[in-house]
Amino acid sequence: MVDNSHILPLNADVALDELAANAVAIGLPMNTTFRNTTLREVMLIKGPIGWAEFSPFPEYGPQESARWLSATIEAGWHGWPEPLRNAVPVNATVPAVPVDDVAAVLARFGPVPAVKVKVAEDDLATDIARVQRVHELLPDADIRIDANTGYTHEQAVEVITALPFLRYAEQPVPGIEPLARLRAALRAAGSSVLIAADEAVRKETDPLAVAQAEAADLIVVKVQPLGGVRRALSIVEQAGLDAVVSSALDSSVGIAAGVALAAALPHLEHACGLATAALFATEPATPALPTNGALTPGPAPVPDPEVLEQLKLPADRQRWWHKRLATAHGVLMQNA
Ligand SMILES: O=C(O)CCC(=O)c1ccccc1C(=O)O
Ligand SMILES: [Mg+2]
């Protein structure tokens, strides 16, 4: 058994009826395929202090979804800690698009201090060419890659060594031990590219295990998978590593929580992955697009009722989402 007693409890103090009565499931059409998705489904819930998002990925089960719901309750019913900064630098996110499409994708983000490039969906040469194209277009940007666990140890070494200008590589290989082994191998080879853990934090039952195993130089934290802004803050503090706040492809309602977390971190070394609104073609509320490469903390944007109605998913998907909401709520109540 993992001892999680040092981690803040999940928020479980809102009745299911109240959540369900104020919830609507919508589909956000995307500009480019991302995570094999062209329509991101999310549930938006209106709480007494503002709009909140509940959007676990379709394949996530009840235990994981319960953490996402804890973040929803925090956003709509409790609120977030005070910001320590009023600008959060963000990265552009380049999906695994063909090299020739990179410039057009980057253009949607405006000027940014950093770029995250998705890799490990094609062959290694294509991955390397995509990243080199970004470096060519934005020579001064901090560049990181995200393989979403998709490389073997050998593939990761090959790609990272071919791209020595990288600032860091996010979850190049799966799991904590493989990450630790890769990090040690890169150091031994004289590489200065840092290792970031994402899935190993987001999906493990013990989010602090990465730091204990010295598997990464920094951790990627997402508000909903970690159960809310306050819970994520406490996990970062206990991990004692630099953190990058990223979007879980949230709508701009959910992005506001990510910006609140990034703004409340005592130390913010790297630009955050919170500019994903640029990947959506339509949103019900003012999209969280960066100005001069940064986002500003503030309350979640209020959806326009007409656009909300247009984006509303059909009845069968509403039922599916409401059922998920009920299941996640049941888990929260059981654990509370
Ligand atoms: O960090 C970013 O730039 C964007 C967010 C992102 O990549 C992402 C979005 C949804 C699900 C997983 C991930 C990920 O970081 O792996
Ligand atoms: Mg990632």
From TrEMBL:
It is an enzyme of class 4 (lyase). The gene is menC. InterPro entries: Enolase-like_C_sf, Enolase-like_N, Enolase_C-like, Mandelate_racemase_C, OSB_synthase_MenC1. Its EC number is 4.2.1.113. Its cofactor is a divalent metal cation. Mg(2+) binds at residues 146, 170, 198. Residues 99-189 form the Mandelate racemase/muconate lactonizing enzyme C-terminal domain. Pathway: Quinol/quinone metabolism; menaquinone biosynthesis; Quinol/quinone metabolism; 1,4-dihydroxy-2-naphthoate biosynthesis; 1,4-dihydroxy-2-naphthoate from chorismate: step 4/7. This is o-succinylbenzoate synthase. It comes from the Bacteria.
